[in-house]
Amino acid sequence: MTLSLHPLVILLVFPGGFFLILASLAYEYVDRKLVARFQNRIGPRWFQPLADLVKLLSKEEIVPQGVQRGLFYLLPLFALASALTAALYVPMVGFKPAYTFQGDLIVTIYLLSVLTLSMGLAGASTVDRFALVGATRTLTQLFSYEAPFMLALLGPAIAAQSWQIGTINEFTGQNLWLLVAQPIGFLVALVGLMGKLELPPFDAPEAETEIVAGALTEYSGRGLALFRLGKDIELVIGLTLVSAFYLGGIHSPLDFILKTLGLLLVVALMQTLFARLRIDQVVGLWWRIGTILAVIQLIAIIAGRYLGTLLF
């Protein structure tokens, strides 16, 4: 359906651009509301994420001394553009991906990493000590979570014998939910997504009580708004990917809403249950445990396929 649309419409309106921005704000509201209710708070009103975005966009953007102005302005744009581009290869709202090719899964994973890299560079390019500490933690956590998250998404790809997101989505829709067949991969993918987005308890890179806003301490106005919007968009895309790979695929708008919001409920619950981990706990434990678990599952999948070939 989306393949018949004009490329500019695909990029700016649906499934990228305007639609994805509105969807990301809605999911941010649901996430904040769920966490608040779990903590016995009222939480924000429905328009609060939009109000926050408009407020930041209307504020003055202050450029601190000692930074490269071009890089300071371009990094938020790179972060947002990469997230919007990644949506073109994902079955948003149950429609076929707008663009697809063999290997688009790998491209999408790396596009989702540009946001974190941009945040790390944003903090490292300033002279503020809080931003420098936050940048160090951001990049360290990226390397710790990227490998397990990628390995967790490779399990369904191997099962479907394809590196194409659309093909994997169709395969999971025709078979048993891979959540049942690959529960370790599902857990690693979900925790890895939270680590990539620096959601609690993996929010050491931007711990407000320790380092103000981490790598984004020096950002204000439009730059901060674009970074925050990019993270919200990646939340929607990440939930869509995990749902498409492990929850039987996404083949209709109802599928999309039910499965992604169900995962968001689990994510909000995990944010509530666990206290913030130290950066050494995040890196040491997850790098060892998450990677080992993901590799064990991949070995089991490959061995299972090999034995199945020998027997049948």
Number of individual domains = 1
Structural class: mainly alpha
Number of helices: 13
User: Span from first to last CA?
Assistant: 38 Å
Percent of residues in beta strands: under 5%
Reported for the largest beta sheet, the result is: none
H/E series, N to C?
Answer: HHHHHHHHHHHHH
**Number of distinct beta strands:** 0
For this structure, the quaternary state is: single chain
Low-confidence stretches: none
Spatial shape: globular
Q: State mean pLDDT (0 to 100 scale).
A: 85
Rg (C-alpha, Å): 19 Å
Helix content: over 70%
Pfam family, one: NADHdh
Transmembrane segments: 6-27, 71-93, 105-124, 176-195, 232-250, 256-274, 286-307
Membrane topology: Multi-pass membrane protein
Subcellular location: Membrane
Could you walk me through the main structural features you see in this protein, from its secondary elements to its overall organization?
The structure is a single chain. The mean pLDDT is 85. This protein has one domain (2-311). 71% of the residues lie in helices and 0% in strands. With 312 residues, it is mainly alpha-helical. The chain is globular, with a radius of gyration of 19 Å. Helix 3 (48-58) runs antiparallel to helix 11, helix 7 (165-173) crosses helix 11 (221-246) and helix 9 (183-196) runs antiparallel to helix 11 (221-246). It is a multi-pass membrane protein. Keywords: Membrane, Transmembrane, Transmembrane helix.
